[in-house]
Amino acid sequence: MRWDIFCQIVDNYGDAGVCWRLARSLTSLHGQEVRIFCDDLPTLNLLASGVDPEIKRRIDIQTWEASHHNSRHPVETPDVVIEAFGCDLPERYLAGLLIAPKKPVIINLEYLSAEPWIAEFHGKPSPQAHGIPKYFFFPGFQANAGGLLIDPVPSEPFVSPTNIPASLKTSWKLLRPNTKRISVFCYPGAPLLKWLEDLGRLSENFDIVLTHGQLEQLQFSSGYPTQTITLPASIQLISIPFVSQDEYDWILSQCDFNIIRGEDSFVRAQLAGKPFIWHIYPQKDHAHEVKLAAFLDLYLEDTSQELKHAVIAAMTWAMPSQWIQSIDAWSAHSKAWRADLLKNQADGGLAARLMGFVA
């Protein structure tokens, strides 16, 4: 089948990350033809860099504007159109679908959520005035939701510590032996400097792997944007260049703890099987707090009260000294959670469920 995916980037990388991972799953695992129309090609291309050229060659990446010309080519009508995260289709593109001899199915691909109500709305029709069938598709953790994007599953050769991506070789040489590693990818607004200062008071060494732009964000939030940040000697900051999606997956697997943001990184942190803080995108109406609580209800369902308190404290930016004593139990739980996730998504997860739904 031919698939058109429309992606408007709101959260810098997360939206593009999901669309790219879905496209590569559909092509490499299911042999589908996929075009992505994106309003921020530089970001999408950065995420897709470093991928097997054979995978990239199969995906037709186009500018958002390029979709406007398709009204003159009704022959190229796709079988499935995906509106990622509720973005509206360009009017001229939609006009082309209306005059096409064969109508596609339109899928409104929603944001991932662990909230129980999504199962009731997943797969339901969304009647449109134009008459082209459209459906809601909700990714989720539950068996009766749309599943997770699990491809590629981090394998032993992939996560090998010796398999250092070329772009990270210089940074990785700075890591100290027998030192805990924490990767950081969060939004402005997180109390990161205070968090690192607290970490520096613990009797342990930490190497902090800062993703592209985090050091500048940290300097700016410290109020001294042009000065070097001074932290205890036990804390070493290592700033890395912008990396592709696969290289970031590798980083998550090599760290003992990960601070992540955005939907794609959220799933990858869980598949890395390590403790993590999900810095969920803050929304004015506090909807993000409900979303985080729903995930934690699921994530911590079978854990001890002590671990529940520790993880909830960590996820809501309590200082590390308040919960670090539970880190070993959290690490064990992270591995068990990863195994459960893979078992629950054994049908192939989101891409496979989408294929089955469309069929």
Secondary structure: elements and pairs:
Layout: E1 2-7, H1 14-28, E2 33-38, H2 41-48, H3 53-57, E3 59-63, E4 80-84, H4 91-99, E5 105-109, H5 118-121, E6 134-137, H6 169-172, E7 180-184, H7 192-199, E8 206-210, H8 214-221, E9 235-239, H9 245-254, E10 257-260, H10 263-271, E11 276-278, H11 287-299, H12 305-315, H13 327-344, H14 349-358
Parallel strand pairs: 1-2, 1-4, 2-3, 4-5, 5-6, 7-8, 7-10, 8-9, 10-11
Description:
This protein is α/β, with parallel strands linked by helices. The model is unreliable at about 70-75 (pLDDT under 50). The protein has helices at about 15-30, 40-50, 55, 90-100, 120, 170, 190-200, 215-220, 245-255, 265-270, 285-300, 305-315, 325-345, 350-359, and strands at about 1-5, 35-40, 60-65, 80-85, 105-110, 135, 180-185, 205-210, 235-240, 255-260, 275-280. It is built from 14 helices and eleven strands. It has two domains: about 1-150, Rossmann fold; about 165-335, Glycogen Phosphorylase B (Rossmann fold, 3-Layer(aba) Sandwich). It catalyses: dTDP-beta-L-rhamnose + L-arginyl-[protein] = N(omega)-(alpha-L-rhamnosyl)-L-arginyl-[protein] + dTDP + H(+). Pfam families: EarP. Protein-arginine rhamnosyltransferase that catalyzes the transfer of a single rhamnose to elongation factor P (EF-P) on 'Lys-32', a modification required for EF-P-dependent rescue of polyproline stalled ribosomes.
